[in-house]
Amino acid sequence: MGGENGVETAFDIALILASSPKLEYFKLSVDREVCSDFLDVICDAYKRRFNGTGLSLKHFNVGEMLHIPSKHMLENLTDLSVIEKLQVGGDCRCSIIGTVPRLWEIFSPAEMPNLKELSVMEILHRNWDLIAPIVSGKIGFKLKEYMWEPGRRARPLVDLAQGAKVPMLQVPLAGVIRNDTSWFFKDSYRCEWLTHLKVIAPVDVCGLNSKGGWLCCLPALCDEAPQLPNLVALSFGPERELRWLNCHGKQELAETAKKLMNSCAKLEYVELHVVAFAAKWREVGSGPAATGQKTWQKLDDAATEMRRPMFFADS
């Protein structure tokens, strides 16, 4: 960022925004190792130097290491009631302010009635319970990473899902004992509202147990995922740009996907890192007696990009 505290760069960005009154998508990120008030500076420059009417952003993406400004400051930049999709970096590592408490103050359903999907990169464990009022009534919530704190235990899927209670959920498989996938999915039959689930697994989720034996997460996934009674789409594995360590070749992933498809009654799409399958319907019989039968099609990379649910797409 140019100039003292990035003021010159903020002025340039504010000028571009003021020249784009019909702008609907805005993504801001910074390359820093410490947290920044850069978005505050942009909001201030936009209002004071250009006296601009607030934008009507529908998609607002605020990267990591950026503090979330106050409600009054954000309203200088955009009409909060118009935003449909919001992504923020997450709770600050500087301990000055937590993003989630600030979200709870600003982005209430009353302030943002059109918000459909919220994505948060990182959340402090102690702030998880603040998510419920923010995402109440929304379609989807994405969480990429937890910041676990000493003395605090991990939460299984059922606790996370009941905190967010949205039909589409992305959560990390984090803070659990290595390969304890069964524990993570414990009692997930109670999450009957979940239709789309993306679980981001660490690359080393499988490995040696305390006795030196090898444990893999895939058998537990096959045993536990069918508990979710209304699951339509499932994604499980590390981020696509990462390699899954230790095991899980394409053949093993394909066999696991087939088992999931046969055991999850409503499942129509399953993606296990680099392997994806989608439901394909064919007509059996003819005339009035004809019925539809669900079969499965393995997808190549191009077909995966087309069939992947939008909620599973990387933000």
What distinguishing features does this structure have?
alpha/beta, disordered N terminus, globular, two-stranded antiparallel ribbon, 315 residues
Describe the protein:
The protein is of the alpha/beta class and 315 residues long. The chain is 27% helix and 23% strand. It contains 10 helices and 13 strands. The relative contact order is 0.07. The N terminus is likely disordered.
The average pLDDT value, as a whole number, equals 81
Low-confidence stretches: 1-5
Helix content: 25-40%
Task: Let me know the number of strands.
Answer: 13
Largest sheet: 11 strands, mixed
**Class of secondary structure makeup:** alpha/beta
Radius of gyration using CA atoms only: 22 Å
Shape annotation: globular
Termini separation: 24 Å
Total count of helical runs of at least 4 residues:
10
Strand % is 15-25%
Strands side by side in the biggest sheet: 1-2-3-4-5-6-7-10-11-12-13
Q: What is the chains' assembly state?
A: single chain
Element-level helix/strand string: HEHEHEHEHEHEHEEEHEHEEEH
